[in-house]
Amino acid sequence: MRKLMLALAATVAFAGSALAEPVRISVGSYNLNNLPFPVAAGLGLYEKEGLEVTVENFASGGSKTLQALVAGSTDIAVGFYDHTIQMQSQNKAVVAFIQLARNSGLVLAGGKDSTFD
User: Fold this and answer.
1) Using CB atoms within 10 A as the burial measure, which of 8, 39, 63, 84 is most buried?
2) Across-strand partners of 26?
3) Domain count for the chain
4) pLDDT: is 69 or 98 the higher one?
């Protein structure tokens, strides 16, 4: 997860330095897959790298993040790769930068005394 956050920070740093303005990241909800973005913001990791990043939660899901991206009210929309294809089919200038993996890399763990199976 740390590598993902550093890769995102590097990508955002490049975009931020080129534009010299704050970067807005929108997520479709604070589910487990999207959690690294608000956690990084809460821990001050973006600021530590000299970035001004705002993370916005669209609890209603990915379609709202896509609308925000196309409307220009966000710079980065976190979602699924097919959203890019969908937007390009509608002649929207949307570019995807993604991390592909065999699995999500997410793990839930508990101590010896935990009660979940």
Assistant:
1) 8
2) 56, 77
3) 1
4) 69
Residue-wise pLDDT tens digits, 29-86: 777 778 888 889 999 999 999 999 999 988 777 778 888 888 999 998 887 778 888 8
User: Which CATH number fits the domain that encloses residue 32?
Assistant: 3.40.190.10
User: Do 12 and 37 form a contact (C-beta atoms < 8 A)?
Assistant: no
| Cβ-Cβ contacts under 8 Å for 1 (sequence gap 6 or more) | 36, 105
**Is residue 94 in a domain?**
no
Instruction: Report the distance separating Cα 6 and Cα 97, nearest Å.
Output: 14
Query: 38: domain range?
Result: 2-89
> Is 33 contained in some domain?
yes
Give me 109's structure tokens: 């763990």
